[in-house]
Amino acid sequence: MKTVKAKKRLGQHFLTDMTVAKKIADTVDICPDMPILEVGPGMGVLTGFLLEKNRTLKVVEIDEESVAYLCKHMPLLGEENIIPDDFLKMHLDKVFAGKGFMLTGNYPYNISSQIFFKMLDNKEYIPYCSGMIQKEVGERLAATPGKKDYGILSILVQLWYDVEYLFTVPETVFSPPPKVKSAVVCMRRNNRTQLECDETLFKNIVKSTFNQRRKKMRNSIQQIVGKESPLLSDTILDKRPEQLSIEEFIDLTKKVERELQQ
After folding, report:
1. CB burial class (10 A; 0-12, 13-18, 19+) of residue 105?
2. What is the pLDDT of residue 109?
3. Does residue 61 share a domain with residue 109?
4. What is the DSSP letter of 55?
């Protein structure tokens, strides 16, 4: 049987271990009633197990060779459910006619962080997400304050999702094998319905402080509020960004917001 050639430019590493594929597919059981969108199905190793769930399933694949393979070898999926597109450019509100869905996949490693930022932009349609990514990214997603992996991605995702690091996957179960280990994670929308501060300012504070993560918060906040601001005497600014919880970042954003309105 002809197979698809993995393309480095697309970050393709095809999963070859059926046991691992089934374990990833089983992560969708956390929301058994929702349709599923799989990103980057490749030759359909994960897709086959998702089809066994007897749920509405669509796949999005940017690689024309993989699309042709799926059309030929996965008749149970149906060509109408194969979307030949770039996930990062899709209008996700149209995939299931405005209905919510679960996102999953063996995500292309070169765009995994971008996939999760896309998820955040469409969080009203994606209450659940699971899948496989680089171990490093999985650890960053799930990291808590005080950990070396805790950073911008941790905070922006955990602001809206509860993240669970499920298990680690070795390099040997892929073709071609990646140079790093992989991780399977699961994310569930938390109870937060709105942010109690300006979201643009919140993101700016998170990004600017972590871009100087070895320095105390005061250095970064000073650039936002100015050298004469009384806010600079706040003791929380004696900390480094990785020491602050999400709630503390929200509280700090409120203080900065008030200061900027003076």
Report:
1. buried
2. 87
3. yes
4. S
The string of pLDDT tens digits covering residues 97-106 is: 999 999 999 9
Using CA atoms, how far residue 198 sits from 125, 179, 237, 252, in Å, is: 22, 40, 19, 11
| pLDDT tens profile 172-188 | 998 888 889 999 999 99
pTM over 0.70: yes
**What DSSP letter does each residue of 95-160 carry, written as one string?**
TTTT---EEEEB--GGGHHHHHHHHHHTTTT-SEEEEEEEHHHHHHHH--TTSTT-SHHHHHHHTT
**Domain span including residue 235:** 199-260
Alpha-carbon distance 220 to 87, whole Å?
Answer: 34
Same domain, 136 and 217: no
Do 176 and 110 belong to one domain? Answer: yes
